[in-house]
Amino acid sequence: MDLTETEDEKSFRAEARQWLQANVPATPLPSFDTAEGFELHRQWEGLLFEAGWSAVSWPVEYGGRGADYLKWLIFEEEYWRSGAPGRVSQNGIFLLGPTIIEVGTEAQKARYLPAMASSREIWAQAWSEPDAGSDLASIRSKGRLSDDGTEWILDGQKTWASRAAWADWCFGIFRTDPESIRHRGLTFILIPLDTPGITVRPIAQLDGDAGFAEIFFDDVHVPVANTLGEPGKGWNVAMAAAGFERGVSLRSPARFNVAVDRLIELWKQVGDLDDDTMRDAVTDLWMQAEGYKLHTAMTVTKLLEGGHIGSESSLNKIFWSEMDVRAHELALQLLGPGAERTDGPYESWVDGFLFSLSGPIYAGTNEIQRNIIADRVLNLPRA
Ligand SMILES: Cc1cc2nc3c(=O)[nH]c(=O)nc-3n(C[C@H](O)[C@H](O)[C@H](O)COP(=O)(O)OP(=O)(O)OC[C@H]3O[C@@H](n4cnc5c(N)ncnc54)[C@H](O)[C@@H]3O)c2cc1C
């Protein structure tokens, strides 16, 4: 792994930096967990797409830039350093999109990917159910074929679907073989959220914004052509998507490098620089962020050499989510009673802290990731 940038990579970085400097909104957009913020983020995504920066690592014919993963990492560094808005389209571009590229038909790639890249269609993930979160294989939402075999008829309830309050489509897994149990007999289906029979009920998150929604399916008809992968093999498709979610694409290192740089600035502004304990804690965080960056470069090198990321993506997920919580805890410690102020150096740390608490839960809880590591990475015997 040689981390020296080639001339081509240097000019790619310069181009990205220049575009971002010229186009990133001067004032932060309202949260994309509000109706107004969601649409403003959609417009921003449209601007990114027009300039070819929306789905940097996708093939050009599907709305991407055709860049390799190393360039994508460079773009991510420039993106987060520029203070650009969070990606409202992340479920599509970083999770479902790569899965469609891997297992979708040519017709599905042509139908879904360009609309996803431009954020004309924004996607929500409809997997969790009230009694099936960690144990996803126990989902009860059902699908059955119509008499003429052309449609799935869906019934059931999903919950915690991020951004579903305003999204256009969702991707879900449904039990389509009533005789099946656990991971078998599930089908991965793509569903427009305005289909008759769907009710979307927003759920307010800790900060009061409707960050999630419940989705109710009541006799919902969708074409069988909306099946991703083989009917009955939806678990494999979902696990491929989960690998993208826990692996490199959802949380690239730059986001944490930027957060830790902000933490260091905060420490310089409000911290007691003679306090060795805090100095060590901040330094440790900086090393963790650098370590994650180098580890990701190693993973990307493996991917570029034709390798795959398997269960080891669970290691990533634990590492970045715990690092994020730690960074925000230290920031609040530094801010002390000022932590709830929203001006100057205080801005946004509390919001960031509240969101960081969800990192060890979403994309599969860290307890479950530890089980996966014990079982499939370390091959430890089951209890
Ligand atoms: C911010 C956020 C965004 C989310 N977005 C989405 C989304 O877009 N789409 C979607 O489908 N879902 C989403 N989720 C839901 C998320 O995937 C689930 O919350 C998660 O999988 C845990 O499921 P659960 O909430 O049902 O908790 P449970 O499964 O009930 O778990 C409760 C606790 O028990 C522990 N536990 C459970 N089983 C085991 C075990 N076998 N071994 C050890 N510990 C165990 C868990 O780790 C957890 O601490 C989101 C969640 C959050 C917080």
Blueprint (SSEs and pairs):
Elements: H1 7-23, H2 35-50, H3 69-81, H4 90-103, H5 106-117, E1 123-126, E2 142-145, E3 151-158, E4 169-175, E5 186-192, E6 198-203, E7 212-223, H6 234-246, H7 253-270, H8 276-304, H9 313-335, H10 349-356, H11 366-377
Parallel strand pairs: 1-4
Antiparallel strand pairs: 2-3, 3-7, 4-5, 6-7
Helix pairs in contact: 1-3, 3-7, 4-5, 4-6, 7-8, 7-9, 8-9, 9-10, 9-11
Flavin-adenine dinucleotide binds at residues 125-128, 133-134, 160-162, 358, 361-362, 364-365, 367-368, 371.
Descriptive report:
The chain has 383 residues and is of the alpha+beta class. The protein has 3 domains: 7-117, Butyryl-Coa Dehydrogenase, subunit A, domain 1; 123-233, Butyryl-CoA Dehydrogenase, subunit A, domain 2, CATH 2.40.110.10; 247-377, Butyryl-CoA Dehydrogenase, subunit A, domain 3, CATH 1.20.140. The protein contains 11 helices and 7 strands. Strands 2-3-7-6 form a 4-stranded antiparallel beta sheet, with no helix packed on it. A 3-stranded mixed beta sheet has the order 1-4-5. Strand 2 (142-145) and strand 3 form a beta hairpin. Helix 3 (69-81) runs parallel beside helix 7 (253-270) and helix 7 runs antiparallel to helix 8. The longest helix has 29 residues, at 276-304. The structure holds flavin-adenine dinucleotide. Flavin-adenine dinucleotide is lined by residues 125-128, 133-134, 160-162, 358, 361-362, 364-365, 367-368, 371.
